[in-house]
Amino acid sequence: MINDPIHGGALDQIRHRFPQAPSPWLDLSTGINPWPYPHTEWPAAALTHLPTATMTEACRSAMADAWQCDPSCVLPVPGSELAIRLLPQLLNIGTIAVPHPIYGDHLSVWRDAGRKVIPMTDPSQIPSDAQALVLCNPNNPDGRLWSFNTLKAFHGEMLRRGGWLILDEAYGELLNGDGITPDAGADGLIILRSFGKFYGLAGLRLGALLGPQSILKPAKQALGVWPISGPALTIGTRAYQDKDWQDATRMRLATARQALDAALAALGLATITGTDLFRYVHIESAHQVWEKLCAQGVYVRRFADQPDHLRIGLPETERDQDRLVGALKLSLSA
Ligand SMILES: Cc1ncc(COP(=O)(O)O)c(C=O)c1O
């Protein structure tokens, strides 16, 4: 029975479970960019004053400009996880369809709220009683992509039922403008965005909820007056405006992802999907391989319900990648 922390990045707990593992650990358990946005300075007032409406507006505009949507449809939030958690409170629906595999919180928050969750393997067959459909684009952990036209069709179908398409675009920066954010504000459509992944600053806690006013108004009410810190608003505004960094980062991630795939393929691990921020690798006995990797101080992500896959984040350096490959080689052969 696997009893891992429910999210990646829990190195403190994993270290505790494997006290003999060599230090420092190599943490590849998340899909967070290992080369974070570098311009992270902020004026003293961002800490000594309360965050102002002007700062929030600037961040909201920068987000809306990056996602090509109307700023009035964007609500900055302190990380998209909190927005996911708010959804059962915002949507008065009884039954929700959630594909498998997907980011686990999309199942747990609805179940914990006492709603009926219908797990699906094929999201194109939306169950007839579903009042909402959750999708993650690109999907975590397998990287599955939904085309703009397919998403439009799903949204149309849910709208026809008086329901909702909930689209988690936590990794949406990798879509490079091919997402559905220009439709934000339409009835029946909720989009979630995360700052932490692509910009590599997950600890800053910033994200956004995009939707019609009927959703944003109660969400704003629930979050209170100063939900996002001054440093997060300052750095987020700058990063969302920095198109040059965004373009260069997309290229850098794609190059690193190709190098990682080549290294994994050389080990005989050729069935690989995922995104440019994490790889989803088919590995026999993945749970046991995970244990062996941990014993060598290498922390990747395994999933209790997926015994034949591991998710591996991008190593920051060639040395880290060599260490991953060496540890995998030993773990696969042992
Ligand atoms: C698909 C997906 N959605 C949402 C989140 C929550 O991220 P955050 O709260 O940092 O924005 C994560 C984090 O791993 C994720 O993978």
Automatic annotation (TrEMBL):
Residues 54-325 form the Aminotransferase class I/classII large domain. GO terms for molecular function: threonine-phosphate decarboxylase activity. Its EC number is 4.1.1.81. It is an enzyme of class 4 (lyase). InterPro entries: Aminotransferase_I/II_large, CobD, NHTrfase_class1_PyrdxlP-BS, PyrdxlP-dep_Trfase, PyrdxlP-dep_Trfase_major, PyrdxlP-dep_Trfase_small. The keyword Transport does not apply. It catalyses: O-phospho-L-threonine + H(+) = (R)-1-aminopropan-2-yl phosphate + CO2. Pfam families: Aminotran_1_2. Pathway: Cofactor biosynthesis; adenosylcobalamin biosynthesis. Keywords: Cobalamin biosynthesis, Lyase, Pyridoxal phosphate. Its cofactor is pyridoxal 5'-phosphate. CDD domains: AAT_like. Decarboxylates L-threonine-O-3-phosphate to yield (R)-1-amino-2-propanol O-2-phosphate, the precursor for the linkage between the nucleotide loop and the corrin ring in cobalamin. This is threonine-phosphate decarboxylase. It comes from Ponticaulis profundi.
